[in-house]
Structure to design on (543 residues):
């Protein structure tokens, strides 16, 4: 039985307790939430732990309650005079950026440490709406002021027009091939799934139809997203700490693209009233120097190999160490925390184990995993894989969300061709799809003569994109099991399945830790997920 928490703030007067109200969730307990409204004060209060023996609430009463500027003063002194960046991680903000292109939003989301994102989805939201009679794509100022403006606008409009016209035919095709009558749904009267035609409850029928409509719409939008140009405008929410926001601002301000620089300025301006102490350096001497450094990096890349690439479409395992050595690393890691030996000695001992004993060590851990949320232990981070990827840009956007890996990517272009879903043939629009891709390629070639960075805006998401991923087996397990799920997009399901097949070919024993990958053919879209969501909604609605 847990012991009662001790009183952490003895001796507080009634007046002091009143002063703590609205700033801390409790005046007494050793565990409490910091609720003081200003982010800068929250961060400064936590920072004071390292330099005082007092509790936080006493520090607040002694230093912050009498001085409303105490937090600002603290950060100005510590960040400005000592450069202790870690304390900038103690302030938190949530920022929304609306009307941002799919070029700029990926630049923002490249920042994987200290920031979290949620973006408008191309799977659940149709992109066929107009604003003031115009399709929603970014009209890049330098392009619009050039002789290529008409080619750019015409290519983007052509893509959005076809997307809008194909929406209903594609939805009809998907629903014709996936009729609601061909699926089973929860029959609440019998307590089990039953074919749609056997449902008798009106609420069960409504729930089944809603799940089917949502799932088939997602499938149709999946087919269409390749038409969208990278200039398509989206919305993104960003949550993170002050240090990460400062770095994001510096990255954006170092960009050659006007849009990205403007977003960096806007984020800094919006954060100034609440987190000014955290992000103010981005406009000072150190911030400007940092931005110059980031801008210079691209100009100083070494010239290695030829100027013409030989990338192939698809997924290719570019490198991993022999399984015998990787097994020794992982087995040593599994034993390390329970052993008195250092890692080097454990590796030598693991290397002397026979093949069956090494396989049993992996299998015994793999057997403990009962579902994909049971992540492999950290020892599996000691096996690593490098992949050369050339997939369509739409699919890249899905894999780009994974964080615990190294990803490097090139500028978006048209040289690797594009992927067209076969369903465009079925709805009689394959020729229009190809014409749309050709218009984008032509506009890209013209704009790229002056700026490859700006030319990216006109490239459709169907075009193949070259990037590089290095990840450990623990993250590969998470990525593969998540992205091969039947409700996933067909493109990234195939890519994740290929990744696992190639890992298994090189590391047949280690790859046994990946237990919940779905290696079957085409999935059923999001229907299973929508059915589960409908069941949860119904349970929540019950009194």
């Amino acid at each position: 039985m847990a012991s009662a928490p001790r009183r952490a703030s003895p001796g507080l007067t009634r007046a002091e307790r009143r002063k703590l109200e609205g700033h801390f969730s409790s005046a007494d307990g050793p565990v409490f939430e910091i609720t003081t409204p200003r982010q800068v004060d929250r961060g400064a209060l936590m920072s004071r732990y390292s330099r005082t023996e007092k509790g936080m609430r006493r520090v607040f009463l002694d230093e912050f309650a009498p001085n409303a500027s105490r937090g600002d003063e603290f950060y100005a002194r510590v960040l400005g005079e000592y450069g202790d960046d870690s304390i900038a991680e103690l302030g938190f903000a949530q920022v929304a950026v609306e009307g941002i292109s799919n070029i700029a939003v990926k630049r923002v989301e490249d920042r994987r440490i200290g920031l979290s994102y949620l973006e408008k989805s191309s799977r659940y939201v149709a992109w066929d709406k107009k604003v003031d009679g115009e399709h929603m794509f970014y009209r890049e100022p330098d392009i619009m002021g050039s002789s290529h403006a008409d080619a750019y606008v015409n290519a983007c409009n052509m893509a959005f027009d076809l997307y809008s016209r194909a929406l209903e035919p594609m939805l009809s095709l998907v629903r014709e091939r996936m009729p609601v009558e061909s699926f089973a749904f929860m029959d609440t009267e019998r307590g089990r799934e039953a074919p749609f035609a056997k449902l008798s409850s009106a609420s069960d029928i409504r729930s089944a139809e809603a799940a089917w409509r949502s799932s088939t719409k997602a499938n149709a939008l999946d087919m269409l997203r390749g038409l969208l140009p990278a200039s398509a405008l989206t919305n993104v929410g960003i949550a993170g700490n002050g240090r990460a926001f400062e770095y994001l601002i510096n990255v954006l301000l170092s960009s050659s693209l006007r849009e990205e620089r403007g977003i960096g300025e806007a984020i800094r301006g919006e954060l100034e009233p609440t987190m000014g102490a955290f992000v103010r350096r981005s406009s000072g001497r150190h911030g400007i120097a940092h931005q110059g450094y980031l801008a210079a990096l691209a100009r100083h890349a070494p010239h290695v190999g030829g100027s013409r690439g030989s990338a192939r479409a698809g997924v290719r395992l570019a490198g991993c160490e022999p399984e015998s050595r990787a097994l020794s690393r992982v087995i040593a890691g599994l034993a390390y925390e329970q052993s008195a030996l250092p890692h080097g000695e454990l590796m030598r001992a693991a290397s002397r184990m026979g093949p069956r004993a090494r396989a049993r060590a992996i299998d015994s851990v793999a057997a403990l995993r009962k579902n994909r949320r049971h992540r492999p232990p950290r020892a599996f981070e000691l096996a690593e894989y490098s992949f050369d990827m050339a997939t369509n840009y739409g699919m890249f956007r899905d894999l780009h969300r994974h964080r615990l890996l190294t990803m490097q990517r090139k500028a978006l272009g048209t040289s690797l061709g594009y992927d067209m879903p076969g369903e465009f043939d079925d709805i009689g629009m394959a020729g229009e799809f190809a014409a749309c891709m050709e218009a984008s390629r032509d506009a890209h070639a013209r704009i790229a003569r002056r700026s490859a960075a700006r030319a990216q805006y006109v490239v459709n998401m169907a075009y193949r994109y070259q990037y590089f991923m290095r990840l450990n087996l623990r993250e590969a397990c998470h990525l593969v099991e998540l992205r091969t799920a039947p409700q996933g997009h067909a493109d990234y399901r195939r890519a994740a399945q290929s990744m696992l097949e190639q890992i298994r070919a090189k590391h047949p024993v280690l790859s046994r830790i990946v237990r919940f990958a779905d290696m079957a053919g085409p999935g059923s879209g999001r229907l299973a997920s929508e059915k589960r969501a409908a069941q949860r909604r119904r349970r929540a609605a019950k009194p």
